[in-house]
Specification:
The strands form three sheets. Strands 3-1-2-9 form a four-stranded antiparallel β-sheet. A hairpin with a 2-residue loop joins strand 5 and strand 6. About 45% of the residues lie in helices and about 25% in strands. It has three domains: about 70 residues, Orthogonal Bundle (Arc Repressor Mutant, subunit A); about 90 residues, Alpha-Beta Plaits (2-Layer Sandwich); about 70 residues, YebC, transcriptional regulation domain (Alpha-Beta Plaits), CATH 3.30.70.980. The protein is built from nine helices and ten strands.
Length: about 250
Amino acid sequence: MARHSQYANIKKRKGAADKVRGKVFTVHAKLIEIAAKRGGDPIMNPGLRTAIDKAKSDNVPNANIERAVRRGTGEDKDGVVYEEATYEAFGPEGSVFMIDVITDNKNRSLGNLRVILQKKGGNLGAAGSVGWKFESKAYFEIVSHGSGDEIEMKIIDCAADDLISLGEGKYEVYAAPEKLGEVKNALIKADFKVEKDELVWKAKDEIRVNDVALGKQILDIIEAVEEDDDVKSITSNINIDESIFSQL
């Protein structure tokens, strides 16, 4: 979604925490397998080290991480070859989506997404039909010891392009994608706690949704797509108005 925290809050309210955690573990395992193909030693393979660190930050058990590394290096002969892909889609009333997948079968992923979207009132688009409405960004969720203009200026000084205050010292921060590592290090040095850092899609122009029925339909699309095993993430250009958010 346009604001990452909105949909996360809805999932928590629906009591889907266990299901979400299982999906997160699966995604991390696939990312570790992809990274481990370039070597199973995290000291010699920075990409693997980063994938493992991110998995640990989401409390993925060490046993899961070790199995994923073995599958990626080929030590586990039952491993499969995963690759990443991005699909573009349309929803109702001008809503659009970027869908990132990690899959061992692109044809299966494409077919599954086409069926899911059609059932929920959306449809897949051709490559480039939606992508121009988004930009790749480095994304961070951070916590500070305070709030206000002074804190926000400190965040901007860390080479951030944009930020959203979530209250209680929590912020969503965006930066140029190639600066993910640089900005993360600067935020840590400035005494911010970085709870999440990743590359995401960010809509260039958001659509404000202030209709409950439309908001529910779009969220149903997002939830159905996210339930597919191959889907890593789905991002939309919608921003649900706070006046109806509590009704969803």
